[in-house]
Amino acid sequence: MQEARAPAQPRLMAAVASTGDVRKAVEQKPVVVVGRRGCCMVHVARRLLLGQGANPAVLEVSDDADPAALVSALRFKDISTKGVADVVVDAYGAAATTCHAAFPAVFIGGRLVGGLDRLMSMHIAGELVPVLKQAGALWL
C-alpha cells in the first residue's frame, strides 16, 4: 500500500543576497512575491495567488532590507524614466498618485503591482486573473 503524499508545495527560494537576484527572478518568472522571511502577509499573498492558479516564486530578503531601495533598483528598460507610482498607475489603472514601497512587493509580468492591499483590491475588482493570464502565469 502506498503512502499518501502531501501536495507539492511551491519552492521557497533562499534568502536573497542582492538586488541582482531579485531582478533576475522578476525578469524570468511571471509572478514573484518579495518579502521578509516568515512574514504573514507574504504567506497571504502567496495563498491568494495559488488560489487563482498561479505559482508565485517567493523571494525572502534580510530583515534589514529597505523596500524602497529595492523597488527603485528594479526599474526596467521599458519603465526606466517613470517612478514607482507611475508604474502602478500605467500598468493597472490605479487611482493612487503615490506608492509607498513596502513588503511584500508583488511583481506580475515583470512589473510592480504593489503590496498585498493592491493585490487584494485587484482580486476583488476582477482584475487579477486577466493580468495573470496576460503575464503567462495562468494556462487557461
Largest pleated sheet: 5 strands, mixed
* Sequence of secondary-structure elements: EHEHEHHEEHH
Write down the overall mean pLDDT: 74
- N/C terminus separation: 35 Å
Structural class: alpha/beta
Helix fraction?
25-40%
Rg:
15 Å
Main β-sheet, spatial strand arrangement: 1-3-2-4-5
Total helical segments: 6
What is the 3D shape?
globular
Stretches with pLDDT under 50, minimum 5 residues: 4-12, 76-99
Portion of residues in beta strands equals: 15-25%
Number of strands: 5
Walk me through what this model shows:
By secondary structure, this protein is of the alpha/beta class. The protein is built from 6 helices and 5 strands. It has helices at residues 19-28, 40-51, 67-73, 84-92, 116-124, 128-135, and strands at 12-15, 31-36, 57-61, 105-108, 111-114. It has a 5-stranded mixed sheet, sandwiched between helices. The protein is globular, with a radius of gyration of 15 Å. The N and C termini lie far apart (35 Å).
Quick structural summary:
With 140 residues, the chain is α/β, with parallel strands linked by helices. The chain contains six helices and five strands; from the N terminus they run E-H-E-H-E-H-H-E-E-H-H. About 24% of the residues have low confidence.
Strand and helix layout:
Elements: E1 12-15, H1 19-28, E2 31-36, H2 40-51, E3 57-61, H3 67-73, H4 84-92, E4 105-108, E5 111-114, H5 116-124, H6 128-135
Parallel strand pairs: 1-3, 2-3
Antiparallel strand pairs: 2-4, 4-5
